[in-house]
C-alpha cells in the first residue's frame, strides 16, 4: 500500500502533460568530489542522457558537483528548482536534511530521485544499491573466510555520511552473527587511499596479531599497501575494492580479498528510471522498500578470488582509477513500471 501511495504521489507531481513531452531538464547534484568514483558516476550519467538523445528524447543536464556540507547541497538543490528543472537526481550528503527542500520541489512539480544513499523524504524515491547489504556482504565474506574466529578491525569512510553509516551497520550485523569474531577497533579514513594506508599502518602497530580487516572502497588499496609493507599478506584476509589499479595489485599479490561493488553507474540507472517516470509511466505495485519505504534496490555485484579474472577482463584497457561498474539499461528500468 505504501509503495502504491508513493507511486501515485510521484505521478501526481509530474503533471498530465508529461507523456507528450520529449525533452527534459534534469539536475545532477553531487555534494562530494573526493574520489574518481564520483567523477565516473557523473560521466556515466551524462552518457546515459546522451543515449536518450539518440532515441529522440532530449535531456539537458544541470550538473552541480562540489565539496559542500548538507546545507550547501540544499542550496544547490534550491538553485536547480529556481532553474525550472523537471527532475533532480541527487547523491545526498544527509538522509534527512533535504526533507523541507524536497517538499518545495514537489510543490514545483519536480521529481526527486536519490541515488547512492537513501533519503527519508516522502517526496523522493531512491534508486541504487542497499548500502546496508553492501557492508553485510563484505563482512559476511570476511567472517566466513576466517572460519568465524579471529580479531578484526574495520576502516570506514566519512563519519556521518548516510552510505557510510549504513555500510558500517551492515558490517556489524554480519560480524555479530559470529561470536568467535572480535572487533578490536573501528576507524574512519574518509574514503581516501592515503588515509586508508596510514590508518592501516597505525592499526597494525597497535594490533599486530589481527586476522582480518573490513575496509570500504576508496581506501582498500592503501590498506593493502600497509599490509604488504608489514609482510602480512599471507596472514590477513581483508576486503578490497573494484578500481582497476587495485584489481591489478590484488591479482599480482594473490591477496585473500573480496569486494562488494557499488557501481558508479547508479546515477545513470537513476536517470533512466527518472526519464521513464517523467514520460508518465506508472510504477508497479510492491517495488519500493528500504529504510524509508521509497527505495528501488539494484543488485550488488560481488567479486572474490574466483570471479577476479572476470573483473580484470572488464577493466582491461581502462585507466587505473576506473571502477567496475554496472547500470540499468532503459529496457531493464522499464521492468519497474507497469
Structural commentary:
- The chain starts with a helix and ends in a 5-residue tail after the last helix.
- Helix 2 packs parallel to helix 10 and helix 9 (244-253) crosses helix 11 (308-315).
- It has helices spanning 2-14, 36-54, 70-82, 99-107, 131-145, 162-176, 193-206, 220-229, 244-253, 266-278, 308-315, 330-333, and strands at residues 23-30, 58-65, 87-91, 111-114, 125-128, 150-156, 181-188, 212-215, 237-238, 259-260, 295-297, 302-303.
- It folds into 2 domains: 2-129 and 263-300 and 319-336, Rossmann fold, CATH 3.40.50.2300; 131-260, Response regulator (Rossmann fold).
- The longest helix is centred in the N-terminal third of the chain and has 19 residues, at 36-54.
- The chain is built from 12 helices and 12 strands.
- The strands form 3 sheets. A 6-stranded parallel β-sheet has the order 2-1-3-4-5-11, sandwiched between helices.
- It has 338 residues and is α/β, with parallel strands linked by helices.
Task: List the keywords.
alpha/beta, single chain, 338 residues, 17% strand, 12 helices, Rossmann fold
Summarize the structure.
The protein is α/β, with parallel strands linked by helices.
Per the principal axes of the C-alpha atoms, what is the gross shape?
elongated
The CATH architecture of the largest domain can be named as 3-Layer(aba) Sandwich
Placed side by side, the strands forming the largest sheet appear as: 2-1-3-4-5-11
Fill in the CATH topology of the largest domain. Rossmann fold
Share of residues in strands: 15-25%
* Total beta-strand segments: 12
Quaternary: single chain
The CATH superfamily label of the largest domain reads Response regulator
What is the class of the largest domain in the CATH system?
Alpha Beta
Largest sheet: 6 strands, parallel
Share of helix, binned: 40-55%
Contiguous low-pLDDT stretches (5 residues minimum) are 1-5, 14-20
End-to-end Cα distance: 16 Å
The run of helices and strands is HEHEHEHEEHEHEHEHEHEHEEHH
Task: Return the average pLDDT rounded to an integer.
Answer: 93
- Rg is 20 Å
How many helices? The count is 12
Q: What structural category do the secondary elements indicate?
A: alpha/beta
Amino acid at each position: 500500500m505504501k509503495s502504491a501511495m508513493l507511486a501515485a504521489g510521484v505521478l501526481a507531481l509530474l503533471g498530465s502533460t508529461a507523456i507528450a513531452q520529449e525533452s527534459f531538464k534534469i539536475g545532477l547534484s553531487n555534494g562530494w568530489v573526493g574520489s574518481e568514483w564520483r567523477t565516473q558516476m557523473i560521466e556515466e550519467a551524462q552518457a546515459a542522457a546522451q543515449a536518450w538523445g539518440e532515441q529522440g528524447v532530449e535531456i539537458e543536464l544541470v550538473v552541480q558537483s562540489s565539496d559542500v556540507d548538507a546545507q550547501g547541497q540544499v542550496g544547490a538543490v534550491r538553485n536547480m528548482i529556481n532553474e525550472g528543472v523537471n527532475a533532480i537526481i541527487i547523491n545526498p550528503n544527509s538522509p534527512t536534511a533535504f526533507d523541507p527542500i524536497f517538499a518545495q520541489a514537489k510543490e514545483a512539480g519536480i521529481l526527486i530521485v536519490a541515488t547512492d544513499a537513501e533519503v527519508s523524504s516522502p517526496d523522493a524515491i531512491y534508486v541504487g544499491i542497499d548500502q546496508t547489504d553492501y557492508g553485510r556482504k563484505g563482512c559476511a565474506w570476511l567472517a566466513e573466510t576466517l572460519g568465524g574466529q579471529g580479531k578484526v578491525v574495520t576502516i570506514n569512510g566519512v563519519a556521518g555520511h548516510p552510505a557510510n553509516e549504513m555500510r558500517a551497520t551492515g558490517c556489524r550485523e554480519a560480524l555479530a552473527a559470529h561470536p568467535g569474531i572480535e572487533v578490536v577497533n573501528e576507524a574512519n579514513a574518509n574514503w581516501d587511499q592515503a588515509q586508508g594506508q596510514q590508518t592501516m599502518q597505525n592499526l597494525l602497530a597497535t594490533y599486530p596479531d589481527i586476522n582480518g580487516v573490513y575496509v570500504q572502497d576508496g581506501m582498500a588499496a592503501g590498506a593493502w599497501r600497509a599490509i604488504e609493507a608489514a609482510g602480512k599478506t599471507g596472514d590477513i584476509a581483508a576486503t578490497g575494492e573494484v578500481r582497476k589499479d587495485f584489481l591489478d595489485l590484488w591479482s599480482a599479490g594473490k591477496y585473500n580479498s573480496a569486494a562488494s561493488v557499488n557501481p558508479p553507474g547508479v546515477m545513470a540507472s537513476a536517470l533512466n528510471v527518472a526519464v521513464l517516470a517523467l514520460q508518465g509511466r506508472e510504477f508497479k505495485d510492491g517495488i519500493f522498500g528500504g529504510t524509508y519505504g521509497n527505495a528501488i534496490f539494484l543488485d550488488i555485484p560481488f567479486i572474490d578470488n574466483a570471479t577476479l579474472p572476470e573483473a580484470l577482463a572488464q577493466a582491461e584497457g581502462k585507466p587505473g582509477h576506473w571502477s567496475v561498474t554496472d547500470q540499468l539499461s532503459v529496457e531493464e528500468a522499464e521492468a519497474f513500471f507497469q
